[in-house]
Amino acid sequence: MKKETLNKTDLIDLIVEDESVGLKKADVQNVVNRFLDLIVEHVQNENINISGFGSFTCVERAGRNGVNPRTQEKIVILPKKTIKFGISKKLKDSLNS
Predict the structure, then answer these.
(1) pLDDT tens digits for 14-66?
(2) What are the two backbone dihedrals, phi and then psi, of residue 9, each rounded to the nearest 5 degrees?
(3) What predicted TM-score, i.e. pTM, was given to this entire model?
């Protein structure tokens, strides 16, 4: 069975619906957007660790040789930066309990 995908709008709606939060949708949108912007701004220069959730780390993949699967032509794949996410022990344990 395929799981449904929870997107950013769905997440914002869930937070707004939670009466214990007591924020308007526009305020929640601003907080969620700023939170994500801060992760993007800072992950390039420092690791981000969210206790109980996981950590985001910027890593650089080395350049390498590859092959175009359609043409079998040899190509050079340039080095690039990517984001690595490590799940926290607490989250992993909650998924497996």
Answers:
(1) 999 998 989 999 999 999 999 999 999 999 899 999 999 999 999 999 999 99
(2) -65, -40
(3) 0.74
What spatial distance separates the first Cα and last Cα of the chain, rounded to whole Å? 20
Phi and psi for 48 in degrees, rounded to 5? -115, 120
Q: In the block, which residue shows the tokens 């994500």?
A: 36
Q: Tokens 């590859």 correspond to what residue?
A: 66
Q: Which residues pair with 49 in a beta bridge?
A: 55
pLDDT of 1 strictly over 90:
no
Phi-psi region of 38 (alpha: psi -120 to 50; beta: other; left: phi over 0): alpha
- For the chain, the residue count is 97
Q: Which residue has the tokens 């009466």?
A: 19
Q: In the structure encoding, which two tokens stand for residue 48, read together? A: 């981000």
